[in-house]
Automatic annotation (TrEMBL):
Keyword Transferase recorded: yes
Any one GO molecular function term: acyltransferase activity
Enzyme class label: transferase
InterPro entries reported in the protein's UniProt record: AB_hydrolase_1, AB_hydrolase_fold, PHA/PHB_synthase, PHA_synth_I, PhaC_N
NCBIfam families attached to this UniProt entry: PHA_synth_I
Keyword line: Acyltransferase, Cytoplasm, Transferase
Domain AB hydrolase-1 positions: 282-524
Protein name: Polyhydroxyalkanoate synthase
Limits of the Poly-beta-hydroxybutyrate polymerase N-terminal domain: 108-280
Amino acid sequence: MAENQAPDVKLPDPVEMSRAMTRIAEQSQRLVTDFLSRQASDGVGAKNPDPMGVGHAFLEMTTRMMADPAKLMKAQMTLWQDYLTLWQRTTQRFFGQEAQPVIAPAKDDRRFKDSAWDENTLFDFIKQSYLLSARWMQSTVNEVDGLDDHTAKKVDFYTRQFVDAMAPSNFVMTNPEVLRKTIETGGENLVKGLEHLLTDLERGKGELRISMTDYDAFQVGKNIAVTPGKVVFQTSLMQLIQYTPTTAEVNKRPLMIVPPWINKYYILDLREKNSFIKWAVDQGHTVFVLSWVNPDEKLAQKGFEDYMVEGPLAALDAIEKVTGEKDVNAIGYCLGGTLLASTLAYMAAKKDDRIKSATFFTTMLDFTEAGELSVFIDEEQLTFIESQMAEQGYLDGSKMATTFNMLRANDLIWSFVVNNYLLGKDPFPFDLLYWNSDSTRMPAAMHSFYLRNMYQKNLLAQPGAVTLGGVPIDLRTVKTPSFFLSAREDHIAPWKSTYMGANLFTGPVKFVLAASGHIAGVVNPPAAEKYCYWTNAKLPKTSDEWLKSSEQTPGSWWPEWNKWVGKFSDGKVPARDPNKGGLPALEDAPGSYAKVRIV
C-alpha cells in the first residue's frame, strides 16, 4: 500500500469465521488421516530420501566452494557493500530525499507489479534486499570451479527454485497487495485461501495440485476441442480424427498431424479463434490428427516402436483407405516430431516414401544441449523414475506436469500460490491452462526408452544407434523436404538444439524461428497479430550464423508455412466428407481417448 494511505478496515464476522474454520478443521483431519495411511502402506520411510540427487550435488558444490575461501570472502564483501549502499539510500528516502535503486527487477518480473513495491520505502527495501540476495546466491554458485557440467546445471536449477520460493511476494507479511487485501476483507482472503489449499490437496489425494484455472469452465468436446470431425480409425494407442471440410475443394494430398503424447492433441484445437487445426481446415487441407490414448498399467510394455507402428504407420494405411491417397504431408509437434523423424528414417530404410513433406514444431532430434530438462536426466534420477514406473506400469501425468511447471516456477507455481492461497481469489478460466492440467501418463517401457536413448545417451543423432522394427535407423538418410518451426524462448526444446537436429537431414530444410515459447510460439493465429518470426533462405552450420543473416517478419508464421506446404499439395480435389470415406466413422471428434481425464 502507498505511504500515508489508510485502507478501510473490515472486522471479521465471528459466525462466518467459526463456520469456515470448522469446515477447514474437518477437511484437514480427513486429509491428514488419508495421507498418513497411504504413507504407511507405501513404506515411504524405506525409500531413498533424496531420489533426485539434489543433496549430493549441493554437497559437492559446497566442498569445492570452501576450497577457495578467498573467492567466497570476496563474494560476501561484495554483497555487504551492496547492502550498505541499500541501507544508505533507504535512509535517504525515509528523510524525504530522492535515491536511485541499487537493483531493480527485470521488466517482465510480475511479482513486483504492485505500485507499493516502489512507492512504499519499507517494501522497496524488502524488494531490493531480496533481489540483491538472489543475485548474490545465484552468481556465487555459478562461479564455483571444478564442478562437472551436469552437477553445475543441477545446482543452478535448484538454487533458482529456492530463490523463487523465498521471494517476499510469496508471504503474507511481506506482500503489500496481500496485506492490503487482508485488512480490507478482515482476513477473509486467508480463510478462503486455506479452503482453496485444502481443496487442491484433496484433489491431489494428499499431494498439492495447484489449481491454475476454473476446471468447471471447460469440457472437452463442448467448448474446447470443438472443430467438427469424426474418429475414423483407432488402435490401442491412438484414435485417428478426420476433420469436416469447410471449403468446396481441398488439397489432394491429406495432412497428418502427429502431436506429442506427453500432453493431449487439442493444444492445436483449443478454441475457434486460436485453433491451428480449424485454420488448416479453412486453408483447404484434409486434416487428420492422431489423438493418443491416456495409458494405464495395461499398456506398460508399449514401447517407442509400438508408438511408431500403431501411430503414424497405422495412420498412413488408414488415411489411404479413407481418401484413396497413398501420400501425405505430415506435421510432428515436440515428442510427436521426434517420433515423426524416427518414422521417416525407418521408412527410408524400407524404401517407403509416402510422406512427401514433413513439418516439425519445436522438435528435438539432437539432445546434446537439451536445456533445463537435462537437469532431471542422470543415472540416479532415471533409476528412481523407473522404480516408480515399475510399481504402476506408467509415469503419472502429474510428475511430468510438475517438472514442466518448475521450468517456469514464478509463472506456473508461485503466481497461483499468491492468487489462490494468499489473495483468496478463484483461478481465472483459461483454455491453455485447462489443457496444461489435463495430464497424460507415460507407459513405462516407452518412457524409459525415450529418456535413456534420446536424453541420456543422445543415440537418435548417431547413425544406426537406435533400432526400430528391427531396423537401425539413421536420420541422415531422410531426404524428405522439411520445415522446422522453433521458438526463441522455448525452455523445453531450446531452439539452438532444434537447429542442430535440422542439420541432420540430407533433404531440403527450411528453418523458421518464432518469437515466444514452446506453446505461444506455435499457437499464434494470424488474426491475433502478435509476435514475429525469422526466416533465412540458407541453413548455415550454426544457429548463430543463421540468426545473424535472418529476416524478421511481424505476425504469425502460419501463412509462411501454408505457402511452403502448398508446394506439396498435388493439386485440388472435391472436399472429403469424413462420413463418406473408405472407413466408417466410429464417433464424433474429439473422440473418447481425448476425454479421459486422470485428475
